[in-house]
Amino acid sequence: MKLSQFNFNLPDDAIALYPHVSERTIKRSDGTTQTFQVTRRDEARMMVIHRKSQTIDLYNKDVKGEPTEDDYIKFKDVSKYFDDGDVMVFNDTKVFPARLYGTKEKTDAKIEVFLLRELNAEMRLWDVLVEPARKIRIGNKLFFDDTGTMVAEVIDNTTSRGRTLRFLYDCPHDEFKRELYALGQAPLPHYIIDHTHEETVSAPTPNDPNATKTVAVQDRPYREEDMDDFQTVFAKEEGAVTAPATGLHFSREMMKMLEIKGINTAFITLHCGLGNFNQIEVEDLTKHKMESEQMFINKEACDTVNKAKLAGKRICVVGTSVAKATETAVGTDNLLKEYEGWTNKFIFPPYEFGLANAMLANFYHPESTLMMSACAFGGYDITMKAYELALKNGYKFGCFGDGMLILDD
């Protein structure tokens, strides 16, 4: 397929900047009421796509089986679509606070440093991205706190924006990591932190005291709770620089509900990287190369998934990262194999999945590899129709947005 087939107009106000928030009203004993907002990641909306019947459900149904207008299906309703013995496969990668801001020696220029991975624990070597890259050369020192304790030296150029840093911090490794992460922020995607609107402000000059100018104002300041919001409740294995977004919808209550209903869970690890956000620069998708991501699938996950697969149960992959990992490790017998290594698998239509027969996904940005993976599973035509309905009905896009469930019925 062609890149242009996945293009559509995504309005700025359709991008979710925060996790889903619900209003709650309490009534006091004196008869007065108070309304307040609470973050409920599991109350985002969820569209259901039936890929064989080529139908889409937006609303819950009444006792007669008719859709109830405005009663949208919510993500927390997902367990209704699965039965005892079915399996949901999750990505238990853990995001670390990868975005730091420092200053360059002598000039005090502000520099963003994005940690990618630790290369050598003993030498404190890290693979990073820097912005603006043109100002950062080999030999430069970067300072990350007011005391000058956390300092890094640039020792190599890896790509146009990539650098290797050596942190000059003499202490036990655990203490170093703790201090480094304390300076970092949640690595929210740039489509969130760069979300701005224009405002006209006063800018008087000697010749015109009433002069104004238009400036870009950030819509989404950093918050202390961002690190918790950008982490799944089942995160375990540290190594991701962006969250497996679909997993963000799951609450602890939802996980317990799956357990009560007899729906089994399996956990694989794929450390999600920034390659998921790289702009595709070729029209012919067969010529696009994905960046590699490290992944692990153990025997316990294989046993859980394969037992259900052989019994004819539903295997639901939670998110495109899980789809990528399981399709990397599935055998010719359509069973999951143990795996430890890297994958650069790029899934786009047409593609025949070997393992899963259900998929949970978010609504993704146009021309993104994540959107293409969802289209490959659901089928291009019906999934694009779902995107059209999402825009028409005010669904939210991105990692904090609404979701879709794709079923093989």
From TrEMBL:
Keywords: Cytoplasm, Queuosine biosynthesis, S-adenosyl-L-methionine, Transferase. InterPro entries: QueA, QueA_dom1, QueA_dom2, QueA_sf. GO terms for biological process: tRNA queuosine(34) biosynthetic process. GO terms for molecular function: S-adenosylmethionine:tRNA ribosyltransferase-isomerase activity. PANTHER family: S-ADENOSYLMETHIONINE:TRNA RIBOSYLTRANSFERASE-ISOMERASE. This is S-adenosylmethionine:tRNA ribosyltransferase-isomerase. The gene is queA_2.
